[in-house]
Automatic annotation (TrEMBL):
InterPro entries linked: GP_PDE_dom (IPR030395), PLC-like_Pdiesterase_TIM-brl (IPR017946)
Membrane topology qualifier: Multi-pass membrane protein
A GO term for molecular function: glycerophosphodiester phosphodiesterase activity
Name of the protein in question: Glycerophosphodiester phosphodiesterase domain containing 4a
Keyword Transmembrane helix: yes
Record localization: Membrane
Single biological process term from Gene Ontology: lipid metabolic process
Entry keyword set: Glycoprotein, Hydrolase, Membrane, Transmembrane, Transmembrane helix
Residue ranges of the TM segments: 40-61, 67-96, 123-154, 434-453
Source organism (scientific name): Sinocyclocheilus anshuiensis
Length: 461
């Protein structure tokens, strides 16, 4: 007795006790006495309620005046009973895995035998009913098997842009730094664009605003609040439009301190002490500074324009004297811009027809990645109109763009995408078909094994 008490105190296993309690209604680890009459698991109450509901539904026609679909209730009841048996099977497997003997409570045995007997006997009781609806049942069974068969076959006909024959994959899309390399340095700063060039970016994307005294500078937002320290320098003008500041006033602002404080991409910890000091000293750059950097490293430039007055377009066009490397994106006064500088490469952000694009001398489209398909990319490429998609920073999305034949992408993660040597999901049609065939075979095999194992344990216990 003392040894048994010590074992109950020091060798008690809550998991095994719970399994034994659910399976055999023995909630104490070392209980060996039989369950007293009336002791049974509370889970049986729900099953008895379902039985009562199913029985009462048969006589509902006389009281309700319409035929109640009691067959549905019977199907639900059958599903509940088989779920109950399946749960007992899972409990038995868990107990066996723990090295325990199986003591199935008598109430579970009664319900199990009654469920199996009830399910098998009803086949003969309802033969007339089944004969009457045999056509319907056969149709439903055929539909079920057809759907199941289709689920096995549908992957073989699925379309994926990364299924390519050997040697048909095109070159990797050109990487264009979105406002530079905003993960490595503050966006729209000289340091950010230098980081983009160093990471292998072949193009630079930015936004241009015109200062109050007519100097084009790099700024995406309407105000200076997010990316400068205007709160400290001009606390009374934090909500003023960026275009209302003169260039000398803009040069007084820090364009990098916010990056260290907010850490927008969680990458500040990767900067060393010298880089942190350099970030702190970044200022708002002019368009001329960016064009000089792009010309020095032979990079393309894409910029969006914040609707400047017509009289200021000349200042933008000749801000750096490198218009042959500029992709002109703004749609306003496009014909006038073409007359002023024919060397500019015209770029459009509109999903227009080929005829409209050719009339405006568009050589490249700049669209969101969700608006383009592989067929459209091929259609535009057939008339020498390349495609740039934005903003793609995830390797899997870049892989899909690569397989779809995209010519360039605007990204925040130049340093990550440049490391990809091939698309992530690239495979030949034969490899794709083999993958799904093996998956179908394996799943069917596992279903058969599970069914056979379940039937064996039910018959045994």
């Amino acid at each position: 007795v003392v040894r048994r008490q010590l074992l109950q105190r020091y060798e008690h296993q809550p998991f095994v006790s719970c399994l034994a309690g659910l399976y055999g209604c023995q909630w104490r680890r070392y209980q060996r006495a039989k369950a007293q009459p009336g002791e049974c698991c509370y889970s049986l109450i729900g099953l008895l309620v379902l039985e009562a509901c199913a029985f009462s539904c048969r006589f509902s026609f006389g009281k309700l005046g319409f035929w109640f679909p009691w067959s549905v209730v019977l199907l639900v009841l059958a599903a509940a009973l088989f779920t109950y048996i399946a749960l007992l099977l899972v409990l038995a497997v868990c107990l066996l895995s723990e090295g325990q003997r199986l003591y199935l409570h008598w109430s579970h045995k009664v319900i199990k035998e009654a469920s199996l007997h009830r399910s098998s006997s009803r086949i003969f009781v309802f033969i007339p009913y089944l004969v009457c609806v045999s056509v319907r049942q056969v149709a439903l069974l055929s539909l079920f098997l057809a759907v199941l068969f289709a689920l096995y076959l549908v992957p073989l006909g699925m379309y994926s842009p990364c299924i390519k024959e050997e040697g048909t994959l095109g070159p990797a899309p050109t990487l264009i730094g979105h406002r530079g390399a905003p993960m490595l340095a503050p966006e729209n700063t000289q340091m950010s664009f230098e980081k983009a060039v160093g990471a292998g970016g072949e193009g630079l994307e930015t936004d241009v605003t015109i200062s109050y005294d007519g100097v084009p500078f790099l700024m995406h937002d309407r105000t200076l609040r997010r990316t400068t320290n205007i709160q400290q320098v001009f606390p009374n003008r934090t909500d003023a439009p960026a275009a209302m500041f003169t260039w000398p006033e803009l040069e007084m602002l820090s364009a990098g301190s916010w990056f260290l404080q907010r850490d927008p991409f969680g990458t500040v910890s990767s900067l060393d002490a010298d880089e942190r000091v350099r970030v702190q000293n970044q200022t708002v750059p002019s368009l001329k500074d960016l064009l000089n950097l792009a010309a020095q490293h032979e990079r393309l430039v894409i910029f969006d324009l914040r609707r400047p007055p017509l009289s200021l377009i000349n200042r933008i066009l000749y801000a750096g004297g490198h218009s042959q490397r500029v992709l002109w994106l703004p749609a306003d006064q496009r014909s006038l811009v073409q007359e002023l500088d024919p060397e500019l490469q015209q770029m459009s952000g509109d999903h227009a027809s080929i005829e409209e694009l050719q009339e405006e001398h568009i050589v490249r489209l700049n669209l969101h990645y969700s608006y383009m398909s592989q067929e459209q990319i091929r259609k535009y490429a057939s008339v020498n109109i390349s495609t740039n998609l934005y903003v793609i920073s995830q390797p899997w999305l870049y892989s899909l763009a690569w397989c779809a034949g995209v010519h360039s992408v605007t990204t925040n993660a130049l340093h990550k995408l440049k490391m990809l040597q091939r698309p992530l999901f690239l495979m030949t049609p034969d490899e794709y078909s083999l993958m799904w065939i093996l998956t179908d075979i394996l799943s069917a095999f596992l279903i058969l094994i599970q069914w056979r194992f379940s039937a064996t344990l039910i018959n045994k216990y």
